[in-house]
């Protein structure tokens, strides 16, 4: 049972430092503690851990406008952050992780400003069927977090300008543009400010966990660890990864997210490959290519290799089975 709750109000808008703070808080969260971290990034596109930056973001336009590209630890899709958006992160040990309780904090906080919100799909929170919050999740051993966005008065023009959302994904959502499927909370409560929402989320946090929150600040954290973390999250290797010439590309949108495979094949053998995905199972996506590398470039051998990938959850079993069916039907 959670005995202590802490509240960390991020004071800066540097996206690389903010991700370093988030990772540091995750690594140092105590056994019986839950932390609520509220933070903002300025003019930033944040992609999921397994996504291809060039396919998800109009990088040149973003950089020309002084924006930032960031890759987070968690899976899921790309999002746009500006100062009209508020981010939240719940950091807790795995044995106390309670997604429903954490979401109740967000839903209750939004209700406190007069807006009725509800959970929708695998990771969205909506009002009147339109998304204002996307959620993602990350686990490292016994440490984990749940984070997401809250669109308050974000610049929707920039959101649609920088993000490259596939037509297939939009069709799955039943809409024709990224701008039409999202909304700002200020549309339903004019005059709503970021600070007001922060205050209400803190109230909801304390009420839901029936505890008084202890306030924390950046001064309480290890500056060297934050500096090292910022260097990692802003590095070329982390943001863009390795460049690979590929000969074959296969892709499909599944119920759990998209999958884009790039293969380098020599004499019928898979010499190298990359898998890009907005799946909420980033660790599985990281593991799969290692099992396929060295196989014959034909569906029987690839499916045999997929059979060897360990599934740690029911969702991971579904993903592996879907991929086997996909390769069995693919024209390689």
UniProtKB/TrEMBL annotation:
Recorded hits in SUPFAM superfamilies, A to Z, give: Class II aaRS and biotin synthetases, SufE/NifU
Q: Enumerate the catalysed reactions.
A: L-lysyl-[lipoyl-carrier protein] + (R)-lipoate + ATP = N(6)-[(R)-lipoyl]-L-lysyl-[lipoyl-carrier protein] + AMP + diphosphate + H(+)
Superkingdom is Bacteria
- EC numbers listed for it are 6.3.1.20
Q: Does the keyword field hold tRNA processing?
A: no
Q: Which CDD domains match?
A: LplA (cd16443)
In the record, biological process GO terms are: protein lipoylation
**InterPro entries registered for this protein in UniProt:** aa-tRNA-synth_II/BPL/LPL, BPL_LPL_catalytic, Lipoate_protein_ligase_C, LipoylTrfase_LipoateP_Ligase
Question: Which Pfam families does the entry mention?
Answer: Lip_prot_lig_C, LplA-B_cat
What is a GO molecular function of this protein?
Answer: ATP binding
Q: What is this protein called?
A: lipoate--protein ligase
Q: What is the lineage of its organism?
A: Bacteria, Bacillati, Bacillota, Clostridia, Lachnospirales
